[in-house]
Write a structure and sequence with these properties.
The complex is a heterodimer. Chain A is mainly beta. In chain A, the strands form 2 sheets. In chain A, strands 2, 4, 5, 6, 9, 10 and 11 form a 7-stranded mixed sheet that branches. A 4-stranded antiparallel sheet of chain A has the order 1-3-8-7, with no helix packed on it. In chain A, a hairpin with a 2-residue loop joins strand 5 and strand 6. Chain A starts with a strand and ends with a strand. In chain B, strands 2, 5, 6, 10, 11 and 12 form a 6-stranded mixed sheet that branches. A 4-stranded antiparallel sheet of chain B has the order 3-9-8-7, with no helix packed on it. Chain B starts with a strand and ends with a strand. The chains are: A mainly beta, B mainly beta.
């Protein structure tokens, strides 16, 4: 596709279950980012990938959160043992390369609701 | 650490009204400043940017001027349209050598509703 694609667009899960969120970046984009958008909190940086490696995982809120990227393309964000405070919109973005004033392209996000 | 503070919404205007959304920042050095817009059901899109003091970013009738003396980057538009209804995010990125120049720091967003 032409843009960043995220799936699912909506996910409702029960507290304690694991969830996987998927991001397909724009083809050829080497940099990939995950952000979390919580109600009234703005966008919170979670993790950054350059290729398949993640030089900055500092934004992951706990060890229940993990992410991987394979083939320099698709990325999966996994949340284990979900809690109600994990409810948010999870946004993925990609750019052609890191740094500078490189433009980020965002997906539409995954709305996660933990009951 | 870096931070961005923008006026809380929601902001409701009538069509053709003047818009200002305030944004101030705290950062070490000389960051680049951005406004992103999120239309209903869509991902964030870059609206405009400014990379150094006194630069003016502009796009689609929106403007913002990088004011280092007041650490501000207020968004303005002279005459809003219904189609401008969206959430607007102010953001900064520290541009520095040696890596770590990838992270955008966002404000909390301001919901704008324009009524016909």
């Amino acid at each position: 596709g032409a843009g960043v694609s995220q799936s699912p667009s909506n996910k409702v899960t029960e507290k304690g279950k694991d969830v996987e969120l998927r991001c397909d970046p724009i083809s050829g984009h080497t940099a990939l980012y995950w952000y979390r958008q919580s109600l009234g909190q703005g966008l919170e940086f979670l993790i950054y990938f350059q290729g398949n490696s993640a030089p900055d995982k500092s934004g992951l809120p706990s060890d229940r959160f993990s992410a991987e990227r394979t083939g320099g393309s698709v990325s999966t964000l996994t949340i284990q043992r979900t809690q109600q405070e994990d409810s948010a919109v999870y946004l993925c973005a990609s750019s052609f390369r890191q740094g500078g004033n490189e433009k980020l392209f965002f997906g539409s996000g995954t709305q996660l609701s933990v009951l | 650490g870096d931070s961005v503070t923008q006026m809380e919404g929601p902001v409701t205007l009538s069509e053709e009204a003047f818009l200002t959304i305030n944004c101030t920042y705290t950062a070490t050095g000389y960051p680049s400043l951005f406004w992103y817009v999120q239309y209903p059901g869509e991902g964030l899109q870059l609206l405009l940017k400014a990379t150094k003091a006194d630069d003016k970013g502009s796009n689609k009738g929106f403007e913002a001027t990088y004011r280092k003396e007041t650490t501000s980057f207020h968004l303005e538009k002279g005459s809003v349209q219904v189609s401008d209804s969206a959430v607007y995010f102010c953001a900064l990125k520290r541009i520095r050598s040696g890596g770590s120049n990838y992270k955008l720091t966002f404000g909390k967003g301001t919901l704008l509703t324009v009524n016909p």
